[in-house]
Amino acid sequence: MEKLENIIENVEKSKDIKDVSQVTIENTDKAIQVKENNKIVNTENNSTYFDDFTKNYRMATQLAKSTIIPQTYQNKPENVIVALGLSQKMGIDPFTIMQNLNIIKGKTSWSGSFCKSLIEMTGKFKDLNLNYIGTKGTDSYGCFLSATRISDNTVIKGPEVTMKMAKEEKWTTNPKWLSLTDLMLAYRCQSFFARLYCPEAMNGVYTSEEIEDINDNNTKRTIKDVL
């Protein structure tokens, strides 16, 4: 029977694996089967598919024993391996990933404070600056992120986020918008800038504040019958 070490090779690079978090490995009487969502995945080239995954799992098992990593990852190698995968994909050290990748109501999310760093790490922009606009304490109060695009030295102005927008989108059901207004405006305009001008920076992951706003907004939207 093929050894497990030769089975688990580079899951993330496999065209047959769509979601590494759903992968399980079963040791049957005849062979070791790799399954995703309980469906057997093509394992003809297992020896070339899963080696990196094996190394990551071994590393994750050791890192999970550490007491200086966030509690979300302590004694949970399955969580650590997700962070390691992102670390390798994005070229960021795993400790930085673990310090800034949060789990909010079962969903992975970046800490809002990390968003600006992610933009800078793309190497596309410099001189990032937060600009506050309007009158504080009113709906006009807001913020936008500006930055200089390195390729042509053009100053880029990101989307404006105002308290009027926050109220219209029901984000203010999250009490942080009232107690930490400047911070919430900054985090949101930074994530908007990233999604518009360098979406690869976020890697498809929302910020923790975005997840909280989505979950805290329980208002049902209704469509008025105009007939």
Description:
Helices cover 37% and strands 19% of the residues. With 227 residues, the protein is an alpha+beta fold. The protein has 2 domains: 1-104, no CATH class; 114-216, no CATH class. The strands form 3 sheets. Strands 6, 7, 8 and 9 form a 4-stranded antiparallel β-sheet that branches. A 3-stranded antiparallel β-sheet has the order 1-2-3, with no helix packed on it. The protein has a two-stranded antiparallel sheet with strand order 4-5. Helix 3 crosses helix 4 and helix 4 (77-90) crosses helix 5 (94-100). It is globular and about 55 Å long. The termini are far apart.
SSE blueprint and pairings:
Layout: H1 4-7, E1 23-27, E2 32-36, E3 39-40, H2 46-49, H3 51-63, H4 77-90, H5 94-100, E4 101-104, E5 107-110, H6 115-121, E6 125-133, E7 142-149, E8 154-157, E9 161-162, H7 163-168, H8 176-179, H9 181-197, H10 208-216
Antiparallel strand pairs: 1-2, 2-3, 4-5, 6-7, 7-8, 7-9
N-to-C span? 68 Å
The count of helical stretches stands at 10
Strand proportion: 15-25%
Helix-strand string: HEEEHHHHEEHEEEEHHHH
Mean pLDDT: 80
Helix/strand-derived category reads alpha+beta
- Kindly state the number of beta strands: 9
Note poorly predicted spans: 1-8, 22-49, 219-227
How would a crystallographer describe the biggest sheet?
4 strands, antiparallel
What does the overall shape look like?
globular
User: How many whole angstroms does the radius of gyration measure?
Assistant: 22 Å
Provide the number of structural domains.
2
Share of helix, binned: 25-40%
